[in-house]
Design goal:
The chain is of the alpha/beta class and 523 residues long. The chain has helices at residues 33-37, 51-56, 61-67, 107-120, 139-153, 185-209, 217-230, 240-246, 249-255, 310-325, 370-384, 397-403, 414-427, 438-442, 463-472, 509-522; strands at residues 7-11, 22-29, 44-46, 77-81, 90-98, 126-130, 174-178, 234-238, 263-269, 279-284, 286-290, 330-340, 352-354, 360-362, 388-393, 408-412, 431-433, 451-452, 480-485, 491-492, 503-504. It starts with 6 loop residues before the first strand and ends with a helix. Presumably involved in the processing and regular turnover of intracellular proteins. Catalyzes the removal of unsubstituted N-terminal amino acids from various peptides.
Length: 523
């Protein structure tokens, strides 16, 4: 099921003269004695891009916005009928927070502002954004942020309702972004990139939001494979027979409790001319639904476990963006898929599983299934050969407890973890490096196998770190690697905010694409 899409283009026409349903401008909040002395309107400051709109209102725009309750708080949206003062019938002021000192707003502030405004304008057909864009070295990042925010803010999952919803408004169909020169090649390149990347994010959201009975492992594998072939990627799909013949014990163990058999999807991007000689592997967890298996989860909130394939969705969609952007580095994606169900054929606590690389794993908790499928995929990626390995998964509740619902935990090679952190800062998908202590590994010693799947005493201390320590066992010494735990950031269960709507967020598609482009440019 595909969500309605929003188109985006650049314009360099005077914003006051644009024939659109609404024109969006930025609004800063000011503080201090000078703002207080000037009254409510003095606490507001129009951002650059709003000059011609302000002139049309004879300098009374901030005063009018203040009367309507505007504060300039980040993401705040205030609508004002123009009554013919400008061509657009509605001016929309979106809050940018405090005025930055000697600089343009941070890209993430622009991204969230654009998303908030476009989301609030659902029902309008054509909207223009006249937000502050610097004319210096930060111009590209600012334009990218505005474009991404607008395109993602317009996302809404199509859903399954059979009756008309009178109060439901269609997402904005067309967004125009006001820039100094709409014909500038670098600006046009940013729009092209933003469209490719946000298409991937939107597809990730669609896959995550799909009802789990409609996206079981075979169907998920088919959907990814079809999209990948259309994008020109190499595709290999291993079914349950091929997995058994290949010795993928972890994937098979998790999937054996379900009537919908597991899959491993491999996607290959080969750059023209061989690229820069480096190889990148992307691995994503694809548990299409996670009941916990025999170690069953509580009923409360279990419906959100349809999102437990968010890592595989992100990797699959990121590969489509990579195919469109054509970076000069070889990239291979590995998507292990299974449905973790309780049945007479489920794997059990106490089982010993022979993994793809030959390691023997003692199972203590069937709800720690993600690391089992990922271990096989990681071992396969290392066997195929790679220089960098990025794995992402909704792996542990410990990530949410440690870092909250917006910040991913990243573990692995220290230098690569810092690179992930930098990519997260650049894309608005924050990640924080975490350690892999020796005592956590010691706690996973098994009496009967090479390693326990979780702490041998079922101690949940350092639960997020246990996942990283386990996965490290399957990475060969010559590979730089990073495990990105997105248990919180991949799914948003609250009210819409910024460019996030309720449901799948698409994290960390933009981080993965950024990392691949960075390696292509800088190795």
């Amino acid at each position: 099921m595909t969500s309605p899409s929003t188109t985006l283009s650049l314009v360099d026409t005077d914003p006051a003269e644009l024939a659109v349903d609404a024109i969006v401008i930025g609004l800063y909040s000011q503080s201090g004695e000078q703002a207080a002395d000037a009254g409510p309107a003095g606490a507001l400051l129009l951002a650059s891009g709003a000059e011609s709109i302000a002139a049309a209102f004879d300098g009374k725009l901030t005063e009018t916005l203040a009367l309507l309750g505007a504060t300039g708080a980040p993401g705040e949206v205030v609508k004002l009928a123009t009554l013919g003062t400008v061509t657009a019938p509605v001016v929309v002021a979106v809050g940018l927070g405090g005025e930055p000192t000697g600089a343009a707003p941070a890209p993430e502030a622009l991204r969230r502002a654009a998303g908030s405004a476009v989301r609030a304008l659902a029902g309008a057909r054509r909207v223009a954004l006249s937000l502050p864009l610097p004319d210096d070295a930060d111009a590209a990042a600012a334009l990218r942020a505005v474009a991404e925010g607008a395109l993602l803010g317009g996302y809404r999952f199509a859903g399954y309702k059979t009756r008309p919803q009178p109060a439901r408004r269609e997402p904005v169909a067309e967004v125009l972004v006001a820039v100094p020169d709409a014909g500038d090649a670098s600006a046009q390149a940013e729009v092209t990139r933003a469209q490719a990347v946000t298409n991937a994010v939107r597809l990730t959201r669609d896959w995550v939001n799909t009802a789990p009975n409609l996206l079981r492992p075979p169907a998920f594998a088919d959907a990814v494979a079809e999209a990948a072939r259309e994008a020109g990627l190499g595709v290999e799909v291993l079914d349950e027979a091929a997995l058994a013949a290949g010795g993928y014990g972890g994937i098979l163990a998790v999937g054996q409790g379900s009537e919908a058999p597991p899959r491993l999807v491999k996607l290959t991007y080969t750059p023209e001319g061989g690229g820069n000689g480096k190889r990148v592997a992307l691995v994503g967890k694809g548990i299409t639904f996670d009941t916990g298996g025999v170690s069953i989860k509580p009923a409360q909130g279990m419906w959100e476990m349809k999102s437990d394939m968010g890592g595989a969705a992100a990797v699959g969609a990121a590969m489509l963006a990579i195919a469109a952007l054509k970076p000069s580095v070889a990239v291979t994606g590995y998507l292990p898929m299974a449905e973790n169900m309780p049945s007479g054929t489920s794997y059990r606590p106490g089982d010993v599983i022979s993994m793809y690389n030959g390691k023997q794993v003692e199972v203590l908790n069937t709800d720690a299934e993600g690391r089992m499928v990922l271990a096989d995929a990681i071992a396969r990626a290392c066997e195929d050969g790679t220089d960098y390995l990025f794995e992402t998964s909704t792996l542990t509740g410990g990530q949410v407890i440690s870092l909250g619902k917006r910040i991913a935990g990243v573990m692995g090679t220290p230098e690569l973890c810092e690179r992930v952190k930098a990519a997260g800062e650049a894309t608005g998908e924050p990640a924080w490096p975490m350690p892999l202590p020796d005592d956590v590994r010691k706690g996973m010693d098994s009496d009967v196998a090479d390693i326990s799947q979780v702490n041998a005493g079922m101690d949940r201390a350092g639960h997020m770190l246990q996942g990283g320590v386990f996965l490290r066992e399957f990475v060969t010494d010559d590979v730089a690697w990073a495990h990105i735990d997105i248990a919180g950031p991949s799914y948003h269960s609250g009210e819409a905010t910024g460019y996030w709507t309720k449901g799948g967020t698409g994290v960390p598609v933009r981080t993965l694409v950024h990392l691949v482009e960075d390696i292509a440019a800088n190795a």
